[in-house]
TrEMBL record:
Organism whose genome encodes this protein: Arthrobacter horti
Protein name: Alpha/beta hydrolase-fold protein
Keywords tagged on the record: Hydrolase, Membrane, Transmembrane, Transmembrane helix
Transmembrane domains' residue ranges: 12-34, 41-64, 79-96, 108-128
GO MF terms, alphabetically ordered: hydrolase activity
InterPro entries recorded: AB_hydrolase_fold, Esterase-like, Mycobacterial_A85_antigen
Lineage: superkingdom: Bacteria
Amino acid sequence: MDSWKPILDIAITGPRFLLAWTILSALLVVYLFLKRRRGRWFLVALGSLVVGTLVGLAVCWYIQDVDNTFGEPLLFEDWFWAPAAVAGIALAVVNLRGGRWWRTVLSALSVIVFLATATFQINAAYGLNPTIGALLDINTASTVRVPSKGTWRALDADEPLYKSWQAPDGMPDVGLRGRTPAPIPATHSGFNARWAGLYLPPAARVKNPPLLPFVLLMMGQPGFPSPIGVGDVADAMAKKNHGLAPVILVVDQLGDPSHDPLCLDGPLGNVETYVMKDVLPWARASLPILQDRKHWSFLGYSNGGVCASYFASKYPQDFGSFISVSGEEFQGSEKPAQVLAQFFKGNQAAYNAVMPRNIMRKHGKYADMIAVYTAGTKDPKYTAAAKESAATARQVGMKTYFLPVPGAGHVGPAYGGGIQEAFTVLFPYWGLAPPA
């Protein structure tokens, strides 16, 4: 794996990288189109492009409007690059016969280039995977060295951290991002989770780090348990607050990116047991974090957003706050009939019982829970879900915030922007910043 690391760590979302692949694809299309200078060939070539484009559009239409595969409308980039790739492949196919051997080889290689270009462009539009390794679900991040437990120190419990903490000379400017020192043992759950990510803020990198607030994060589906994006937001906040930010543990609730276990114990794995009996005890014992519920928060994005509201509302003794960034209203909300049949065997009462809104209503009044919901202003579906969820949270006594992310859809800026908005609210509550 180490020998492949330089390739797997190549950044694939930058404009230069994307432009290079786009130009290469365009040149190949021109080359393949000009195979012969005859009218009949041009008709064949043009026909292959038209047919390929129509097939690609039909696939997008089926995914969005018939199957609702991803539970949300496709982006413009999906509608452009998927048909463009299929059109290019169709042109390459009609070039496979009746030419020199090297043109046949180049036609076959063009298929790979067209697929790669579309994949890179769509991936960048969603902001999902920053590197080739992440795209292939291969974790190449270095492990994060956590300060030994004997060096941790609790600051004055009667004072908020921003008052009792003084940044020492030589404190690093940024936090550490990578994997946990070792995979979290799934002793009780047996859940086959991917290696968790970890962010340690600058204040946790000093000789005697203070105990800090703790954030448990789950990404969307498909998603990768990477601390890079959330670490960027936390670093920006830490820069304003003398290196203070929460310790953030990014855990995997999927096991397989194509699966959605709904954050429950079920046929796709015991995710709930994994979180409550494997992850939380490991975090308490292994990380320099405060132990009280006020300083513990569950953060989730999209698929992870409903997990955040589920765990926090069901286990308020462990979490004092939660953040749902563009989160689903309830588990499987994009395909409730299918989830009801496959996961709950048609038992509607069992399905209803795990929905966060029903857990909140059954629990009654929450004494001191903070609920933060965010959604992009250009994401009407998840904005409606967030407002509906926020209304329920408010009814059961939670101190509730709905924070729109200006100009964001469901992906890309919605993630970082949502976390930024939520952290602005919660940093004073955690004692990391003065009251606003």
